[in-house]
Specification:
By secondary structure, the chain is of the alpha/beta class. Helix 2 links the parallel strand 1 and strand 2. The protein is 38% helix and 12% strand. The longest helix is centred in the last third of the chain and has 17 residues.
């Protein structure tokens, strides 16, 4: 039904699901979710062999690691540009399902790592913002940029996408005023 509707692509997190979908619908474009844990070129090659044409590598990768996947991998690369960072590797977390009964690996993270423990927030990471690195991203060969915004307000979505759309259209990195607008939209004590 999704193929008939003209869906552009499916973002898939499960290796078995990728195999089944690609086998049954070889024309359907498949993107390897960050939850497929693509951390390197070999992971991108594995995803491509399964039938994926795009990978969303782990958020915790360095610029050099992402560049290697772009330069040596067989797939398009989509990177996280803005939003929450997971305390676990690439969103591979069981904390939410154990504490809140909602699986982060199924798109329902209750974000228990954001809660206070022992008078502080030892598990809550600072959010990601690459607004100051747009020019580098444009020249890197990355095919697509991803804004994490699960369960965010319409105002957040409007503000953040508007700022990034302008930066991309103008081919430049954010100035201090634009960085402040992004921080005011939502951040956990600033950005990394």
């Amino acid at each position: 039904e999704l193929e008939r509707m003209g869906v552009d692509a499916l973002i898939v997190a499960d290796v078995g699901a990728v195999r089944r979908i690609h086998g049954a619908y070889p024309g359907m474009e498949l993107h390897a979710s960050t939850q497929m844990s693509v951390h390197n070129v070999e992971g991108a090659r594995f995803a491509a062999a399964l039938g994926c044409c795009r990978v969303v590598p782990a958020r915790e990768l360095s610029k050099a690691e992402i560049a290697a996947i772009v330069d040596e991998g067989p797939c398009e690369v989509e990177v996280f540009l803005h939003g929450a960072l997971c305390v676990s590797h690439s969103g591979q977390c069981l904390f939410s399902s154990l504490v809140g009964g909602r699986s982060g690996n199924r798109g329902e993270c209750a974000q228990p790592c954001r809660l206070p423990y022992h008078g502080g927030y030892p598990l809550s990471l600072t959010d990601l913002s690459l607004a100051g690195h747009i020019e580098e991203l444009i020249s890197s060969g990355v095919a697509s940029l991803k804004i994490e915004g699960r369960m965010k307000s319409p105002d957040y979505v409007f503000t953040v996408t508007s700022v990034y759309r302008r930066l991309l259209d103008e081919g430049r990195s954010a100035d201090e005023k634009e960085k402040a607008i992004l921080a005011a939209a939502f951040s956990r004590g600033g950005f990394t």
